[in-house]
Amino acid sequence: MSVLSVNVDLLPFADPVYQDNPYPYYRIVRDLTPLYESPLGVFAVVRHNDVAALLRDKRLSAAQLDFGVANIFHDSVLGMDSPDHGRLRRISAKWFTAERTADWIVETRRIVDRALDEGESAGGLDACEDLSFAATFGTMAYILGVGTHDAAECRQKVIEMGRALRPAATDDDVAGAQAAFAWYVDYIRDLVEFKRRNPGTSLLDAFLAAQEAGDMSEAEIMATVTLFYAVGHLDNSFLIQNGIRLLADMPEERELFRTQPDVRNDMISEMLRIDTPEQFVTRFSTEDIDISGETLPAGSIVLGMIGSANMDERVFSDPDTFDHKRPDLTRLQMAFGAGQHGCHGQLLARAQAECAISALVERFPDYRVSGTVTHKHTEFIRNISSLPIEFH
Q1: What span, in angstroms and rounded, lies between the C-alpha atoms of 11 and 170?
Q2: Mode of pairing for the β-strands spanning 35-37 and 368-369
Q3: What predicted TM-score, i.e. pTM, was given to this entire model?
Q4: 138-168: pLDDT as tens digits
């Protein structure tokens, strides 16, 4: 069979309407074809089972992708194939255990409680600026053993970097990302030098020890720390923000989250499913690959559309409805990817979401959204920029 050919772009990545809500577009493409060739020259795999298989297919390469302005990430697990991917992943993955995460969440809770104390005095807060970003950025700095200086600028630079890592990136996006990456390299280099002068027991100290042992290069340290800062606050912040936004409109589910800790993990899985922080992962096909009867040609750039997979009615009945009781939900939702590149920080992401949202609903069970919710979504990254809430 040949890939569907149509006269209209079914996934108009650059369209602000699409970026605001891509899910209706995904449904149309899922119904028509398992493999869509975009006019921008990339292929999109849209159905759940096909995306799940794709992300585990060893014929897909990250190392052979051209990241353009983001080529620094080829020195991180994001841009590596085996065996280098496995070598580098093992160095950091052993840190992201349940035991270490429990220790780190103590810091997250400290930041969250301080934000809620200040919000109580003011009658409310911005769940983006004051709560989720402060908690996720502060925790990542704590994990790395460094300070939280220039936090707002770090967040803005990550947003600018992300705008270049998408099909509809403009020349201005690429130029902005180039400047943002240059800024981040200097920022991370300063953190590395600080740790060399002030050694301790942090994750960054472990990276420096690995470099001393010949297991990690300077470039890999720079790229890995940059990646951790980016994913460790942008994606995790969105999970917290979107959870708060969703529960504000669902009083019964909010009460469940508040009173029944044993359902929180599944509720977080459903938050991840119903609006996935990163909408796709990108790979390079090294061979022709069959996608449910369609051929993904060798040498293609392919997007595994995990945002679409998470809304596939073939796997998730009535996908637009929030339902944390879906069978096998935590395993089937794909927000953390799959295969060797699956996110090894997912324990931390879940723990931070549970910590921040539970602290809010336990202390202020009747909170409500008190103003306009604003977004900076792209076709790649979901990003709430302002979420004002008030307490009663």
Answers
A1: 17
A2: unpaired
A3: 0.94
A4: 999 999 999 999 999 999 998 999 899 899 9
Q: Report pLDDT for 5.
A: 56
In the chain, where are the structural domains located? 26-45+53-390
Provide the phi-psi class of 122: left if phi over 0, else alpha when psi is between -120 and 50, else beta. Answer: alpha
Q: Tokens 């403009």, residue? A: 170
For residue 135, give the nearest of 362, 365, 356, 367 by alpha carbon. Answer: 356
Rg (CA), the chain: 21
User: Where do we find the tokens 């899922």?
Assistant: 30
Amino acid at 231: V
How many whole angstroms separate alpha carbon 308 and alpha carbon 304? 9
- Scan for tokens 């020259």, then name that residue: 41
Strand partners, 124: 390
In whole angstroms, what is the distance from residue 368 CA to residue 190 CA?
A: 41
CB 197 within 8 A of CB 191: no
Angstrom distance (rounded) from CA 285 to CA 304: 12
> Facing residues of 381 across strands?
278
| Mean pLDDT for all residues in the chain | 93
Are the beta carbons of 27 and 311 closer than 8 angstroms? yes
Bridge partner residues of 284 (DSSP): 61, 301
The two structure tokens encoding residue 215: 């297991």
Query: Do the Cβ atoms of 38 and 9 come closer than 8 Å?
Result: yes
User: Which two structure tokens, joined as six digits, stand for 337?
Assistant: 């990817």
* Assigned superfamily of 26-45+53-390: Cytochrome P450 (1.10.630.10)
